[in-house]
């Protein structure tokens, strides 16, 4: 887990924040938000909110009262205690790509498989810059739809000892995730005391929470598991084309979802989520790594802190079809403001390609390289007498060089960050070594890392109980 002690970059004035405040208040009170869940509607009705059909019109002050019950920060436990994380404050926690139905490996683009899911899980375990493999790293199309979540959760629990995300396709899938987490961590009381999962609850923007997401939210919040309440906003499609309008909508959707969690279980952990970018107004295709998404990201960090909530946003997102220069600069256009904004929970940190349709082995490694470099860049500089190196000046004097100075010889192995992917060779040496570009080198690193992967230890009795649960539930689900 990385601690971002740098000052956060805040671009909104107090007047701007007050204008956005008026905007989200008007949305929730005058237009309202749809909740396609009778249970949710009944909770809001009992709390005195205006419910008409599936639409809830809120008292904004009531929302703020509920949001204030959520913790400003919380811990999530990993089965290896050294891998447990803190969500909130100056902590940044990074997870891998989430959700692609396809995989790219070299020049081949194909349906994702369970073998790919396991491979990406192993890669996430192997790189210390990542705190989590994520959840739905890719959709394994070769596994039965009704029961694949069991095999995915089992892989996350056994192939890594880091934190993992819960399945949110349905309430039933959420219950399975919780049950398997109880086995792994020693019972319901253990995971309620300290959450063991983070789960993504997406809004069906604009202004609608659908039944499947809400069913999962009910399960996780009732079990005191963390949920990321995330508006899904592509400006021009799911929100207006102006950034301020989209920010106001994002606040309205996020806060109403967070309010529901606090009605389900007051004080349960939540994260203010953001997935904010824009579409290409000529083609309608989603765009990522855009200036607009970067501005929205910076604003979101500031807004979430204003409400006293941990925040999710950012990642290494790109619209590029290949792990090429476009993928690199668009990914950095998203990841750099992620650090500047002080985002706490970062999904899609490694492997995202083609607008989230593809999980890429090469892009995974490239993203980890970028992530390591940014973590190094955002580590505060220590300035003291030793770092001023006056003795080196005294030794070298005028017109000399510092390569052989005592100060250099004492520190040359650790004085600079050494990238594991980048090449700084001269042209002739690079050519003799094969002349491969960054994507090719990344592919080789991914293959080598998988060859060298070592599975973290797990108690045999716990593994057997997990396997029995998966087998039994697969049979009950008809698979």
Overview of the molecule:
With 479 residues, this protein is an alpha/beta fold. The protein has a domain of 317 residues: TIM Barrel (Alpha-Beta Barrel). The strands form 6 sheets. It has a 5-stranded parallel sheet with strand order 10-11-13-15-18. A hairpin with a 2-residue loop joins strand 3 and strand 4. Helix 1 packs across helix 9, helix 3 crosses helix 9 and helix 6 runs antiparallel to helix 18. The longest helix has 22 residues.
In a nutshell, what does this entry contain?
The chain is α/β, with parallel strands linked by helices.
Spell out the key features of this protein.
4-stranded mixed sheet; alpha/beta; 5-stranded parallel sheet; 479 residues
